[in-house]
Amino acid sequence: MAFTIYICLVPVAIVMYFYMYPKNWKTKNRILGVNNRKEFKEGNAAEFIDILNAAHRKQALVITVGIVIVSTIILFIPEMFVKMIASTLFVYVALILLAIPYALGNAEMKRYKKNLGILSENNIYADLKTVGSIHALNKPLLIVLNIIGLLILAAAVLIDTGVIPVSFAIFKGTFMVSTLILAFEFTNLILFPISFMVDNSRNEVICEDSNVNANYNRAKKKIFADMMILSTIINTAFSLICLLAFKFISSEMSSVLLVILYMFMLFGVIILFCSKKKKLEEKYSEYQGNLVEDDDDNWILGIFYYNPKDKKLNVEKRVGVGWTVNMAHPAGKILTVILALTVVGSLLSMVWIGLMGFTPIRIIEKDDSLICHQLWDEYTIKTNDILSVSSGDLSTLHAVRVAGTGMDNVAKGNFNVNDGEKCKFFLNPKVGKYIRIETSDQIYYISADTLEETEALLEHLQ
Amino acid sequence: MIIKINEYSDVPIYMQIRNQIVMGISSGELEAGEQLPTVRALSSEIGINTMTVSKAYQILKSEGYILTDRKNGARVRTEINQSKTLGSQNTEELKRIVSEARLSGISKEEFENIINEMWGN
User: Fold this and answer.
1) Rounded Cα–Cα distance for residues B44 and B41 (Å)
2) Any chain A CB within 8 A of the CB of B10?
3) pLDDT by residue (tens digit) across A122-164?
4) Residue A132 and residue B42: Cβ atoms within 8 Å?
5) pTM for this one?
6) pLDDT of A382-407, one tens digit each?
7) Is A44 among the domain residues?
8) How far apart are the CA of B18 and the nearest CA of chain A, in angstroms?
9) What is the CATH T-level fold of the domain B13-76, as seen in this structure?
10) Domain that holds residue A160
11) Which of A316, A415, A420, A421 is deepest in the core (most CB within 10 A)?
């Protein structure tokens, strides 16, 4: 997981650096989240903005290099759960750090704009010849791809539930393949409404010539539509690959490789999109700054769009590529709350993982019962119910988690061992040894927190 | 044709839309019979309520500049009824503009030049 975060975070940080802090600001639409204007490109203003942009660019460069170094260091943390917590928390830290010079620069640019006597007029432009008539999304193809994806998901679920009498070579008895395909299809499900929303989004007016406006917006929507279609094709293709590959490939490593390959392909699509978008902006740069819709004050820190007067939900991002939501729109408020809850949820899950990692598992004998206890999880095995006790080396056991926790120092929950034996785990994998307890209604694989305690327990049980 | 909406203006948004479409028809930027965007598309593009655009279209229709029907949406009229007179409201407005021009020291010739430039060929 830490490696996946690494291969996501480092390229994103580098791409963000180049997008947020461009060297040649004069050819860009915006400077640190403020609309570029003719007034900025002349005389003292140009000199001031040159210095301001260079200063923030330098700060951002230091932060980006720091992000790459710290992310790499995190990869070498030996404890898996500490590595996981550190890398997840560092994603948030890195994104916030990278946005700080931008937000400070945005505030300075807004102040400087006021000093120049440029007051916000809040003009909105619309080209009557392009309104509602520019579309580039291949809707039938998108719908067909989604239907194929859903059919693949249905097939995986039917195989996993045993309705279709075919079994996967790995993850038998679990819903791992279905879950993996569900993840791909869930991404498609998110991309689907976004594709339609962006295709119907407002057209930018960059000059007085309607033909130029039409061509620019058509090209812009085409680039985004192509990215959505390509991403959907990749998701659907990977769903199909999962379905077919796990029928024949029995290596669990293949699923990890598949996910890594998927991540690389998605990055490829994003890089392709960014490069096409950059070329388009360069092609139309001569028109930029002619008709400026001055909505700088509606962009909090130059990043978050908040405009109660605007009835639109989606607006084009100021930083990076793609679209964002109007946080003043009722649906935008709901989406913001969902996003905030997701962030809080992921932070709480890190606390939970930390507690799991640092709390040792305990086996307590009490009133003719064996109580396996860690945090709020507890298994009680009645000693009278025990039919047999045996032990073994954990390395000889082939276990697949169905539901529960699988960490370096704790494995608990429902597992399948040795091709389909359903059982409950409550052990520390680092001990390297397990005690197998068979009762009248359940099979348990347990251990204490250390090898000595486990051996003592085994001796006592036998 | 580009329309510009100023949210801070004293002129209501529906009147800004109406005025600019009239100017567009007059200047030839909007040709006779040309299709106008639907109420929903234009309101979504500008980020305003559909009722505002609908009101602007209703006024344009009642003034005889556009035609609307369910099948074809809104179109610029091919033949606009020419009354050959300036309405009383516009006459009053013109009177105010001429007065202000005179007070600001603009000569009649200069004023006529401005009008000729606006009028076009």
Assistant:
1) 5
2) no
3) 788 899 888 888 999 999 999 999 999 999 999 988 888 878 7
4) yes
5) 0.75
6) 888 888 888 888 888 888 777 888 88
7) no
8) 13
9) Arc Repressor Mutant, subunit A (1.10.10)
10) 124-291
11) A415
